[in-house]
């Protein structure tokens, strides 16, 4: 019976209960909705537009056409421009490219960590650098 209350709340918020949520087992649907309501849709430290742009970048990396469509439209709903959507997509692609190469090459993590910290320190100490 609790699932009916969850469905009512989803419908009041979204206008309908998507079929993919209806197909989730009851505990999964209720748990998913709780996180969606209290984090994803709520006002948090990260503005909703940025959360959707992050979702879009992750969608590209995971190759999920459902998520890419959803997060693109949600980003637009929260005011993202086509240019911001393209940048988020490229950031996801760039991150995946670097990740794929670094992992395939089996780069030493501690060396990578130290180099990253050195780069951050350098950029902080040299604000005239292009990265800052």
TrEMBL record:
<protein>
    <submittedName>
        <fullName>Carboxymuconolactone decarboxylase family protein</fullName>
    </submittedName>
</protein>
<feature type="domain" description="Carboxymuconolactone decarboxylase-like">
    <location>
        <begin position="38"/>
        <end position="94"/>
    </location>
</feature>
<dbReference type="Pfam" id="PF02627">
    <property type="entry name" value="CMD"/>
</dbReference>
<dbReference type="InterPro" id="IPR029032">
    <property type="entry name" value="AhpD-like"/>
</dbReference>
<dbReference type="InterPro" id="IPR004675">
    <property type="entry name" value="AhpD_core"/>
</dbReference>
<dbReference type="InterPro" id="IPR003779">
    <property type="entry name" value="CMD-like"/>
</dbReference>
<dbReference type="GO" id="GO:0051920">
    <property type="term" value="F:peroxiredoxin activity"/>
</dbReference>
């Amino acid at each position: 019976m609790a699932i009916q209350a969850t469905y009512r709340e989803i419908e009041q918020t979204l206008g309908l209960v998507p079929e993919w949520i209806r197909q989730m087992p009851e505990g999964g649907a209720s748990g998913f909705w709780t996180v969606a309501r209290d984090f994803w849709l709520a006002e948090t430290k990260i503005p909703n537009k940025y959360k959707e742009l992050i979702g879009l970048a992750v969608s590209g990396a995971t190759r999920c056409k459902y998520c890419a469509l959803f997060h693109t439209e949600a980003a637009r709903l929260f005011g993202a421009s086509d240019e911001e959507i393209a940048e988020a997509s490229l950031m996801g692609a760039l991150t995946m490219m670097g990740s794929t190469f670094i992992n395939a090459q089996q780069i030493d993590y501690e060396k990578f960590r130290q180099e990253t910290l050195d780069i951050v320190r350098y950029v902080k100490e040299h604000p005239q650098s292009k990265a800052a």
